[in-house]
Amino acid sequence: MAFEGLTEKLNAAFKKLRGKGRLTESDVREGMREVRLALLEADVSYKVVKEFVAKVTERAVGTDVLDSLTPAQQIIKIVNDELTALMGGSNARLTMASKPPTVVMMVGLQGAGKTTNGAKLAGLMRRQQSHRPLLVACDVYRPAAIEQLKVVGAQLEIPVFEQGQGDPVEIAKNAIRHAKDYGNDMVFLDTAGRLHVDDALMDELKRMKAAVMPNEILLVVDAMTGQDAVNAATAFNDALGIDGVVLTKLDGDARGGAALSIRAATGKPIKYVGTGEKLDMIEPFHPDRMASRILGMGDMLTLIEKAQETYDEKQAAKLEEKLRKNQFTLQDYFEQLQQLRSMGDLSQIAGMMPGMGKQLQGATIDEKVMAHTEAIILSMTPQERENPQILNASRKKRIAAGCGLQVVDVNRLIKQYELVQQLTKQMSKGRMPGLPGMGGFAFGHGRGKKKRRK
């Protein structure tokens, strides 16, 4: 999970400050020294760290903070504010053309993920904003680049424009004409990359920029490369003039320093982040929400948005009514697990829930377990799914035989389901404001059920 190490170290530093009650200036400076070390270990550039710590210290040693009743909390708020400002302050959106199509030029080094993330972004635009995107194969050098774009385009049901191994600039111009003729209001140009920044690459990109005048030039950088990602962003911005950054593989970088350094190094915002390999795992970058995650305070807004994408209102209302009446069945349990799986992996979801990241650190949804769960439930009769209390020994033996598993596997599933229902019953009494359709339980490891009265 991104920023895992940084979150732990910052929380340790804040814990020391909270333990002191009243703070002196020396307490604050000692705490800031630990913050500085934590940021450096997270691969944030030295210059950025130096300026960040200076700003926080200047605000934190003021009398308004040190004389307050909760100085440690005020310092955490200052750190949160400055982290948000460091990453850009607010979410930066794509610049849309006043007259379609909007042309988005995806650039970056080879291996950063331009092809996949250009397609992901096109899919996001169609899914959330009902745009009609066109993917364009302008990488005519890398073997199988065109085929890769066609494959991801087919998976997302987005058309792909390609003209083989021709001139990339001419292909881009022809694609824009095609988009106008066929009603595509967004065009995503998948350009060529290199293993390093060179003159030949930049000259081609400059020619394309001059020919098609894109509304957005988005640089795709790999968060796993740390400071190399920042260096690449600086080089592309100096040579080409980028409008924003798409940061990929943020889910795989436990340090996350690139996310904290790019805005300060280039002056250009991170607009989107890739959070996993699946084609729907891309999301807008919100500096304030990311700062909240870094400080271990969760990101409920993004979690709610993910849930809203997954659930429709009718389904959510139906489930909520069943929960109120304590009628959460095995079929409901299975459907909730499936919906949860579609939201992403557990470690990412855990990081969005205040205080949950530590407990579920490294947790994932086990596809094998999910397959076993599905097989067991599908081996039951509709009556057994709706009323699990009737599952006696002979029924369990029949179910196990029907799905090729053991009775112990059936018992384990029933136990998990009972724990989940118990939790949902508790939450229905004093329900936390929650996610639409989440059914009051957090994760598919199962927590909950108490037998309902007849």
Written account of the structure:
With 454 residues, this protein is of the alpha/beta class. Helices cover 55% and strands 8% of the residues. It has helices spanning 4-18, 25-41, 46-60, 63-66, 71-86, 114-129, 145-156, 168-182, 199-212, 227-240, 257-266, 287-294, 300-310, 313-324, 330-342, 346-352, 367-378, 382-386, 393-403, 407-429; strands at residues 102-107, 133-137, 160-161, 186-190, 216-222, 244-248, 270-274, 282-284. It has an 8-stranded mixed β-sheet with strand order 3-2-4-1-5-6-7-8, sandwiched between helices. Helix 3 runs antiparallel to helix 5 (71-86) and helix 10 (227-240) runs parallel beside helix 11 (257-266). The model is unreliable at 356-363 and 431-454 (pLDDT under 50).
Largest sheet: 8 strands, mixed
Report the span from N to C terminus.
Answer: 44 Å
Order of helices and strands: HHHHHEHEHEHEHEHEHEEHHHHHHHHH
Residue windows where pLDDT falls under 50 for at least 5 positions = 356-363, 431-454
Count of helical regions: 20
Question: What is the averaged pLDDT score?
Answer: 80
What is the count of β-strands? 8
> In what order do the strands lie side by side in the largest sheet?
3-2-4-1-5-6-7-8
Structural class: alpha/beta
Compute the CA-based radius of gyration.
25 Å
The percent of residues in helical segments reads 55-70%
- Structural shape: flat
Proportion of β residues? Answer: 5-15%
